[in-house]
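My current task is to audit a protein record that another person submitted. Please read both lines and tell me whether the tokens look consistent with the sequence. Do not assume that whoever made the record got everything right. I have pasted the whole thing underneath without changing anything:

===
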Amino acid sequence: MEYISTRGKVAARGFIDTVLMGLADDGGLMVPAEIPVISPEKLEEWRSLSFQELFLEIFSYYTNDEIPYDDLKKMVYTSYGNFRAPEVTPLHRVNDSLYVLELFHGPTFAFKDVALQFMGELYSYIAKVRGEIIHILGATSGDTGAAAIQGVRGKEGIKICILHPHGKVSKVQELQMTTVDDSNVLNLSVEGNFDDCQKIIKELFADLDFKGRYHLRAINSINFVRILAQTVYYFHAYLQLPGSDQKKVNISVPSGNFGNIFSGFLAQRMGLPIHKLIIATNENNILERFVVTGEYKPGSFTGTYSPSMDIQVASNFERYLYYLLDEDAEKLSRYMGTLQSEGAITVDGELLARVQADFSALGVKNAQCLEIISKYQQESGYLLDPHTACGVAAYEKFSAPDEISIAYATAHPAKFDEAIALTGIKQEFPAPIAALFELPQHQVVVDHDKAEIVRQLVAFYG
């Protein structure tokens, strides 16, 4: 297995070099040169596997044997040894047609833990066996930062800096990042929104001299390993589902940066028989507008009750566009050039029909989000966080009577109590979250200024 850039101007790389590159040196995103296809017979063999065993099976198609099996196995079992559920991502039945895949049983109570606990172990492994210096740089709309920090805090040979939008993440998300006092962690709270933070990150990774001099590595979903690790729970969810071989199965995914839903697209290309991939967004609904109209055009930023999806520029959209354009890197580059110069791109005709065959999408308003939370608490006794509520609203819109749907619970509701409290619901915080409110915070508040952020990075990385 080799990895190539969506823009076609980077020589093919192996697995570990792809991990270390993160954003491709030509500004594109790394993808496998060929997606392996899993036969129905092999899929059936996997039905009895644990999450960890399934992880090892799927990764075996992608790692090129660059990591000895015993080393990979140790990383996998260490990564998921601290999850609160033995299944890692348990499936909860809500009603006859809806299941919720709980992705929040990791250390920071969010789905990002599933990939980032492993990535922390992988980066630590690479640092040791290759003697690499690992300086991780990322931006977060809330959950990635906490999960990434938790994955690498205190690890030798690794430093991590995370940018988050000041005052635009939930209080628990902020505390999970900023109460960490390890010397290898720097939190920069940026006056701006997530897209402002992400733009600076992409510019720094595109500066190959700066990237090389400071050994920058990516931990957010521009790194293909994040995508691949998330693909595992798509397979795991489907294989846990009773009667999945008798009914059509939809998966509804809260999506802001397009990484989680793209993992589902990858699983589908690998042979997982998902009927509908449903994108749930909030009022920052660039992805819904693209699916419905074919226009991809960032709009004005809106703060919502589901802040992890308050994103107008979806980083992983380029990966999907690459496959939509039949893996034509030259055509993809023209589209991305148009997006940069004109601020929008449009697909129509046959291409739009293919988009609408690949995805359904719904942008959920704030009021509807709260209504869904209240409804399911009253009717099913199940408390949804605001992002999961958007996913459930999308399930209600797009699922037919002969279909089963899985909505992804991407975070524990305690992470977003500000929104939950608006419904009149009172919840009890898990002890690890409650304890955060007693800890001092460690962060540097900076202007949305690239030069100032660079100064902070240079001082931190040394």
About this structure: The domain at 91-109+225-422 is CATH 3.40.50.1100 (Rossmann fold). The longest helix spans residues 112-130. The chain is about 45% helix and 15% strand.
